[in-house]
Amino acid sequence: MSRGNVARFWEWGRKIICVGRNYAEHARELRNELPTEPVLFLKPPTAYVKEGSPILVPHYSSTLHHEVELGVVVGRAGREIPQTSAMEHVAGYALCLDMTARDVQDQCKAKGLPWTLAKAFDTSCPVSDFIPKERIPDPAGVELWLRVNSVTRQRGSTAHMIFSVPYLISYISRVMALEEGDLILTGTPKGVGAVHEHDELQAGIEGVISVTFRVSRQAAIHN
Ligand SMILES: O=C([O-])CC(=O)C(=O)O
Ligand SMILES: [Mg+2]
What we know:
By secondary structure, this protein is mainly beta. The protein has helices at 24-29, 102-111, 116-119, 165-172, and strands at residues 16-20, 39-43, 48-49, 55-57, 64-66, 68-74, 90-97, 100-101, 125-126, 131-132, 143-148, 151-157, 183-185, 193-195, 200-205, 209-217.
């Protein structure tokens, strides 16, 4: 069955693979050690949210953090992909937010538990429209930014990633098969912080794309 054009990757129901601690200054601001190999976690495709729909603070969190990230959209499936041909598997990019229930993540870390509740809830992965590969000739040469209520919170160059996009594609594809329509979130630069109900969040890749999202609170669940 055809899933249509990969430019609507968020409708495909594929994996969202996230890389953590890929910028030294962000690892430091959360008092984490610098990784010697990529830190990976997953979000389900139900985490996707597009402009026009709100980002929801999960009912079990009081500290929802923004993390602006470059997303890489996989255009060709592969396993054990060498770094030298990794870019042939990229269809394009997207500006992504890795929304994180930081209070819940801190509890998970303290208990040695997985980050699923902190990272994988509905609306935890706001994404821009698809950006064709040609519009970003070098994924290590773009500037990411994020503003909350018009105040700049994050600004950082992808030149400061610890592990490059080709390295990440190669590394991940040795753990799990990459499929067309998968999305890789490549980690956030420094400046993460809290957002609250009614906040307006704007984020972009300088000169390429920008998105605007509003924050709402998920209704309490009583049953
Ligand atoms: O929650 C974290 O700090 C890890 C992460 O996603 C990132 O560095 O982008
Ligand atoms: Mg992140």
